[in-house]
Amino acid sequence: MNAPVNIPGATATAQSLGSAAFRERHGLTLAYMAGAMAAGIAGEALLEALVSAGCLASFGSAGLPLARIEAAITRLRASLPGKRLCFNLIHTPDHPAQERSIVELYLREGIETIEASAFMQLSAALVLFRARGAYLDEHGRAHAKQRIIAKVSRREVAQAFLRPAPDALLATLQAEGALNAGEVAAARLLPMADDITVEADSGGHTDRQSLVCAWPSLAALRARVAREFPPAAEVGLGAGGGLGTPAAIAAAFAMGADYVVTGSINQGCIEAGTSDTVKQLLAGAEPSDVAMAPAADMFELGVSVQVLKRGSMFAARANQLGELYRAHRTLRDLPPEECKRLEQQIFHQPLAAVEEQTLAFWQARHPGLAERAAQDPRILMGLVFRWYLGQASRWAINGEPARALDFQIWCGQAMGAFNAWAADTPFADPRRRHAAAIALSLMNEAGAHLDNFMARSVWPPALSAATSTSTSTSASTSTDDVEPDDEEDLQEWLMLQIARELGVDIDQIDPRCSFESYALDSARTLLLLNRMEQRLSMKLSPTLVWNYPTIEKLAARLQQMAEAANVSAEANA
């Protein structure tokens, strides 16, 4: 195991990283979440391991029938009594009735939190989950009964989750009797999400964005929305995609992330609901062993997913299907040699047999779509090609030897980075990759990385003394260099520092708003921390700003620390 660096006075522990508000909101010990992996890959065993360790984990319900999801709820209620459960809700714009039935199951079974993924716009089912049970207290403040963690990569989608549910959807749900007037009134005052995960370059569905570009962009968006709709400032902002090493996780927290979300690396854990063959392939992956391929659920729209290409021909074969779909209108238009190749290399059976199986599947799942496919050869062609894409993920999960070259394994570059980090640890052996142990190791070492960074960033004592002497004259005439004496002085001093960093008047700084709402980047936040250390002559935790996320709360905490330091000094005098 990589041993964390031992730093005198180190304060950034696994438990202190991220937002205290996020941990409290979800009843966690660590600001660490395992994102949903579809078809039950993020299944019961993974949730049991991570939730028991104080982490958050989302059950991968996408692609599973209602009975299977209900069975998972029953098991997890029994194995994790009193714990808050999180289940995934994936957007299915071509089948809204299915999305609605899953939401109604979650509401009926009392699921407290959902991870909403792949949403391009808000749906009635999602609004129903958010608004059901919402209420106004005696002071007129709105409260939600259910929580939503939205996984997004696009600004327009993030903006929808930062704002209240659209009036049109609320009105429709109220008219059909799904919501009452009180729930609608409360929903109009609530952001759609409690937390938003900024998804960068990840396995599965991804826009392949850079986290260091995407996260600050959405943090700035949150601040902008909060000026019009103040509750948006309280929405947590997490980071996901590419997080497979302690250094990457430390970087996410240094940017200001309230929590981190891992994905690909959990699929390689022994608790993941996939085959041992897949886990062995993942354990040998390098960062470059990934490729983009058409997505089964949005094939016709040209949407792609990121998959493992090492040891599998899936990406190449799926992309061939995509090219054929774009070049031809129907299956009957395919050249004979292409039909023969498809039957021999990809489908392993006649195309007519695949057509029959495809229509039978959709007749049971979505009769309306099956009827349209029977009448429109273009639709049928897309569904037949989707047959391969859907089966390929099941072959991988089941570990079917005859289709090993067709395994669809959702995977991002984080898997290869994790393998490089794990090479000198017990985690090099796939049989020792326990999800909870990995989470704790990553978070512990991320804390050590932040401590090391802060230790290197603080000025040496001699330089600090020289700087203090050279500026003593100006200090006596500068209002912001006066030593803060009490909480009110500290609050005003902090307001002035932030106002100067942003180039605005101090009157525009509200001490009750979060630091994130002012779009302070990691560099400015660390600079502010260094200034506080110099003013108070004490070493401060690099996570202090995130654990006390407003000027008001931070000033109160600094005053407590200063008083404690004075008492200690007097006792030692």
Automatic annotation (TrEMBL):
Region annotated Disordered sits at 466-487
Q: Which Gene3D superfamilies match?
A: ACP-like, Aldolase class I
- Biased composition annotated in UniProt, kind: Low complexity: 466-479
Identify the SMART domains for this entry.
PKS_PP
- UniProt keyword annotations, A-Z: Phosphopantetheine, Phosphoprotein
Instruction: Tell me the PANTHER family matching this sequence.
Output: 2-NITROPROPANE DIOXYGENASE, 2-NITROPROPANE DIOXYGENASE-LIKE PROTEIN
The name on file for this protein is: Carrier domain-containing protein
